[in-house]
Amino acid sequence: MWKWLHPYAKGEATYRLLGAWLPWLAGSALVTLTVGLVWGMLFAPSDYQQGDSYRIIFIHVPSAMFSMGAYTAMAITALIALVWQIRTAEWAIAAIAPVGAVLTFIALFTGAVWGKPMWGTWWEWDARLTSQLILLFLYIGVLALYYAFTDARTGAKAASVLALVGVVNVPIIHFSVYWWNSLHQGATITKFEKPSMAPEMLIPLLISILGFALLTGALVCQRLRNEILKQEIHRPWVHAQLGVAEQER
Amino acid sequence: MSVVIQADQLTSVRAGRTLFAQLSLQLNAGHILHIEGPNGAGKSTLLRIIAGLLRPQEGQVRLFGQPQRDDPELWQRQTLFIGHKPAVKAELTALENLHFQAQLDGAGAIDPWQLLETVGLLGLEDIPAQQLSAGQQRRIALARLWYSPATLWILDEPFTALDTRGIDMLHQRFAEHLERGGALLLTSHQPLTWSGERLQKLRIEPQDEEFVDELS
Amino acid sequence: MSLVETNSRCSNQASTFALLRVIMRRDLAVTLRRRSDVINPLLFVVIVVTLFPLAVGPGPDILARIATGVIWVAALLSALLGSERLFRDDYLDGSLEQMTLLPVPLAVLALGKILVHWLLSGLPLVILAPLCALLLKLPFEAWGVLMLTLLLGTPMLSAMTAIGAALTVSLGRGGALLSLLLLPLFIPLLIFAAAAVESTLVGTSALGQVLLLAGLMVLTLTLAPLAVAAAIRVSVN
């Protein structure tokens, strides 16, 4: 009997485990983001060249970092889902992809906003922005495929294959776009070629990066919990869970 | 009597619905197992699991005592699966279909003309399959039975669209197969005109949601 | 007489290649019966190429500058055009599930399907390239490199297309979704191919880009069949 129950118990166990992590992740994300962003926005010194407009890096850099990071994480869960047929890993794809897509969008948006004072235009075919744009397309592709199937398992597996194909392609795309950019534009300002950053700027940036990592973790955690509930809605433990929640209210 | 296929405690959940749970079956050489049940009970799913196209959520299937993961090649060579879809290419003629299919099955030495005559399609050889009737297309698909060396035949509704002569022909072929020590697993909504102890029956009933709830 | 003994396993590489050949010959026979499926994507390329001079004016300066880009983008779009059919019929008539039951690695058969697709879509495009180059007034010295990039690039198009087609085959209509999945993956190909022709036009060697394309092609043809096989297994369930 236990053997029969085993695969279904996994969802419940994961749900509870994530539930235990969530408050810590969310709490520490709140603290580090508040510290990092307030410090960065209000107290860090202005840049001698860019004035105050550089402050957008406190959002732009972390979101760009974790847009890539989330894709890698998604591809790893996709591999786990395909090789070991673990359903929780399949759901994790649906949990990570939208978070990653939003991070990519934030990176694009802040990049464009930053571009206005720097380049005098909202959109420049800069290598970094272009490859972020393509990454956004890749995320949308995975999400579209995931939700295209009526059978959720088939969708999850198809999206897993696509995520793996994508992760092999991401470095190639990245390289090709940078190479293309160097070919066509010599004179664009490269954003991060400053040899060193003043510690008064670097420390809040690092704190923001940590904050974004924790926030990403917390969001994925909560989304995965929702996904587990949604997928196991017919299981008795979900009924019990929701029943308890109603009584508490 | 040697055991050809044995399934233990199979459970299949499709799209959140339990089709069957803890289903076991055994089929010996020289026997037919007729899977019965209403539409949607999971008959096709069971056949697809045994053919190795699907994995069950729980349980395992053994062919000659070997679990599938240990020796997928044994399965590929010792089982023949013909499903709802006939795997007949609409653009190719009956003769070409038979020819390619025989080669894919490793029976390239078979004379496709002979085969065409056996399944009663002589005279229709150069008509593209899409212009043939459903029953004629099914005959092309079923022609594999006349050369297949596989021990276990897994047939999903083999009689669909066949006329009475076709059904008789198929019954005769089944008898030859069993005589040679083969085994046959099939679903059919038509009653089998089969007599004797060689025929076993297994009925699948749709599972209720209650089954899941019982566990809590 | 025991059936088990008479059918002792005789699996070896010879039988793998024999089956690969049968699958390819059947695919060729089937596709050649549907000539319009082969010809229409090629006509599409020629028509797209014809539209550009009408849109941007027939001056040789501008046409020669955009020629490579136009031809390559037209090639990408035409690859998408026929891609839905790649596995659709096999899926609907049950041949695809029978393929997964054959005693050879599915990836090998997937490679066979990719090669047949390339023979009937990519190769004709390579042959058609000089006509497109002529229409777009691409200087003659770049024709060879253009054809070379197409020769190296179209197998990649077929392989990538096969991945997308295998993933979406069980969805009734996968057309728009397929372009969403595939076009971003075509970007490196587009960049390197266009750059190769570009560098020939400015008089430098295109060897670097061509070698990059060749490397990418080898990588793609090695990995794509595995992805196609995985996708087929997902789809036949």
UniProtKB/TrEMBL annotation, chain A:
Residues 21-184 form the Cytochrome c assembly protein domain. The chain crosses the membrane at residues 21-44, 64-84, 91-114, 129-149, 161-181, 201-221. Its main location: membrane. The keyword Cell membrane applies. It is found in: Cell inner membrane; Membrane. GO terms for biological process: cytochrome complex assembly. Keywords: Cell inner membrane, Cell membrane, Cytochrome c-type biogenesis, Membrane, Transmembrane, Transmembrane helix, Transport. GO terms for molecular function: heme binding; heme transmembrane transporter activity. One of its GO terms (cellular component) is plasma membrane. It is a multi-pass membrane protein. Belongs to the CcmC/CycZ/HelC family. Required for the export of heme to the periplasm for the biogenesis of c-type cytochromes. NCBIfam families: ccmC (TIGR01191). This is Heme exporter protein C. It comes from Pseudidiomarina maritima. The gene is ccmC.
From TrEMBL, chain B:
Gene3D superfamilies: P-loop containing nucleotide triphosphate hydrolases. The keyword Flavoprotein does not apply. Residues 5-215 form the ABC transporter domain. SMART domains: AAA. Keywords: ATP-binding, Cytochrome c-type biogenesis, Membrane, Nucleotide-binding, Translocase, Transport. SUPFAM superfamilies: P-loop containing nucleoside triphosphate hydrolases. Pfam families: ABC_tran. This is Cytochrome c biogenesis heme-transporting ATPase CcmA. The gene is ccmA. It comes from the Bacteria. GO terms for biological process: cytochrome complex assembly. The keyword DNA repair does not apply. One of its GO terms (molecular function) is ATP hydrolysis activity. InterPro entries: AAA+_ATPase (IPR003593), ABC_transporter-like_ATP-bd (IPR003439), ABC_transporter-like_CS (IPR017871), ABC_transptr_haem_export_CcmA (IPR005895), P-loop_NTPase (IPR027417).
